[in-house]
Design goal:
By secondary structure, the chain is an alpha/beta fold. It is 35% helix and 30% strand. The protein is built from four helices and seven strands, in the order ββαβββαβαβα.
């Protein structure tokens, strides 16, 4: 993560040390960590945003995010893009977990209703992948961290 530009919710760049110190403060105050990734495709590029959120009931929360631009041609299917989002969240979760030894919940940008969500067919596969890596997992409508990421994909 040191090599990525990290931003706060106001879109301001923050230093890696600031980011780490804020997470450390949040964890020591009983906040939980939630990670979600979303992507937005355009003709030539896809914007992929990973949100690192912390929240404590009754106290609110805050978040940071990273943004990467990749070639759209990298994704041959919706399935491939959904897996890329899940992998980005898992990769980020591992990095945070290595630093702090904390529990992390991964929020996937997939829905469970096949009538409303084209991504529902990947639910079992992707949730099992996240669970298999030792993280808890939520999907729509409970996966709000991926909604935070969505704010910054446009």
């Amino acid at each position: 993560m040191k090599d990525l530009l990290i931003r706060d919710l106001d879109k301001n760049p923050v230093t890696y040390n600031y980011f780490i110190n804020k997470l450390k403060e949040a964890l020591s105050s009983g906040f939980d960590i939630y990670i979600g990734t979303d992507s937005q495709m355009s003709y030539e590029t896809t914007t992929m945003v990973c949100a690192i959120c912390y929240y404590k009931k009754g106290y609110g929360g805050n978040a940071f995010y990273t943004k990467e631009i990749v070639e759209t041609s990298k994704f041959n299917s919706l399935r491939q893009r959904m897996f890329a989002e899940a992998f980005k969240s898992i990769e980020t979760a591992f990095k945070i977990q290595e630093m702090f030894g904390c529990k992390i919940e991964v929020h996937l940008d997939i829905g469970s209703d096949p009538k409303r969500n084209k991504t529902s067919k990947f639910e079992k596969e992707l949730t099992n992948m996240v669970l298999g890596q030792g993280f808890s997992c939520k999907i729509k409508p409970k996966s709000w961290a991926s909604d935070v990421a969505d704010w910054f994909t446009k």
